[in-house]
């Protein structure tokens, strides 16, 4: 067996184990919560037309919520992995590079000035805001020669994010829509409906599929841009497409569940420790790991102080901040 075949076999085994953990976590997330639900209730809700109070809770409340957690976790993990690959920056994350702050401002403007906008319109506004936020960060980072250094990009991201969050806050206070904006951006899956998922999920799926399709090119790009050009890659086109993928995934996530930082930072680093530096392996594993992690965070948020909810953004932050500091201390090499 060649080294490549052995690596592929090992990856298939790791992916299978990851998928089994994901299925286990999904069932666990559907069972645990304020209401007393059994595995049998979940099975009946998924496989039959049976009715009843517990089955209705599973179908109308828990299932859409956990499906949202799956797709948002996958979207944030993949967008973080792609960003780290493009920028060769171990601290790259949709929240750190202005995307979620930009989407936040667009959301605030839409709620304040166009209150009758439907869910699809709000989602498009989030996409546009995410793009503007990222363009501002990369624009400031590119103002000086050698501007795309990891440190300068992170500093630009922190400054732009703080500026955009301040604008969103000012709009909320001035137009008295702070409560509405907070409901959107608090960071959680509560209240997610099947109708919202029907609009958002296709965009996330498209983004992940395109990222998978360009994973080989991203691997080469992440190692050395000169090598990528030498191998005949049109690096500009690839970067633009991948940049659009990041906007699609981050914008959709903010539109659905609000601002959840650190997922896009943590998961790709953990996945690299498991499967190596090849993005053909990193991206599919990030999908499963991101989805599993978000299911875990949502389940902990619902059960740690039941029947009250702990915001999932707080759970993720508690896990993510120490990880972020660890990556900073190790210079991004700890999990590479």
What does this molecule look like?
This protein has 14 helices and no strands. The protein is mainly alpha-helical. The chain has a single domain (72-284, 305-330), classed as ABC transporter involved in vitamin B12 uptake, BtuC, CATH 1.10.3470.10. The protein is globular and about 65 Å long.
Write the CATH homologous superfamily. ABC transporter involved in vitamin B12 uptake, BtuC
What CATH architecture would you give?
A: Orthogonal Bundle
Q: Strand portion, in percent?
A: under 5%
Low-confidence region ranges: none
What's the structural domain tally?
1
Mind telling me the C-alpha Rg? 20 Å
Integer average pLDDT: 84
Largest sheet: none
The shape is: globular
What percentage of residues falls in helices of 4 or more residues? over 70%
Total of DSSP H or I helical runs spanning 4+ residues: 14
Given this structure, which CATH class is correct? Mainly Alpha
Q: Count all strands and give the number.
A: 0
The span between the termini is 26 Å
Oligomer: single chain
């Amino acid at each position: 067996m060649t080294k490549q075949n052995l690596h592929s076999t090992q990856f298939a085994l790791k992916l299978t184990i990851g998928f089994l953990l994901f299925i286990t976590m999904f069932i666990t997330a559907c069972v645990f919560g304020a209401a007393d639900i059994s595995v049998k209730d979940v099975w009946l809700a998924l496989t039959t037309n049976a009715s009843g109070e517990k089955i209705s809770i599973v179908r109308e409340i828990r299932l859409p919520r956990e499906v949202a957690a799956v797709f948002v976790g996958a979207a944030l993990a993949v967008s973080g992995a792609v960003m780290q690959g493009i920028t060769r920056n171990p601290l790259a994350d949709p929240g750190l590079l202005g995307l979620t702050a930009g989407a936040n401002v667009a959301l605030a403007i839409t709620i304040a000035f166009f209150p009758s906008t439907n869910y699809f319109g709000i989602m498009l506004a989030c996409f546009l805001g995410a793009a503007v936020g990222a363009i501002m960060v990369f624009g400031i980072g590119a103002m000086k020669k050698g501007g795309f250094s990891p440190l300068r990009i992170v500093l630009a991201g922190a400054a732009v994010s703080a500026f955009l969050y301040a604008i969103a806050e000012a709009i909320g206070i001035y137009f008295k829509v702070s409560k509405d904006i907070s409901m959107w951006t608090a960071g959680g899956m509560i209240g997610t409906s099947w109708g919202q998922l029907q609009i958002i999920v296709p965009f996330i799926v498209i983004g992940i599929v395109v990222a998978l399709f360009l994973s080989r090119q991203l691997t080469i790009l992440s190692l050395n841009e000169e090598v990528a050009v030498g191998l005949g890659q049109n690096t500009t086109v690839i970067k633009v497409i991948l940049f659009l993928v990041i906007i699609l995934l981050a914008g959709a996530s903010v539109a659905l569940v609000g601002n959840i930082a650190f997922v896009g930072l943590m998961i790709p680093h953990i996945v690299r420790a498991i499967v190596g530096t090849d993005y053909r392996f990193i991206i599919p594993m990030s999908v499963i790991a991101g989805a599993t992690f978000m299911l875990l965070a949502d389940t902990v948020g619902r059960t740690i102080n039941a029947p009250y909810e702990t915001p999932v953004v707080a759970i993720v932050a508690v896990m993510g901040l120490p990880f972020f500091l660890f990556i900073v201390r190790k210079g991004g090499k700890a999990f590479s």
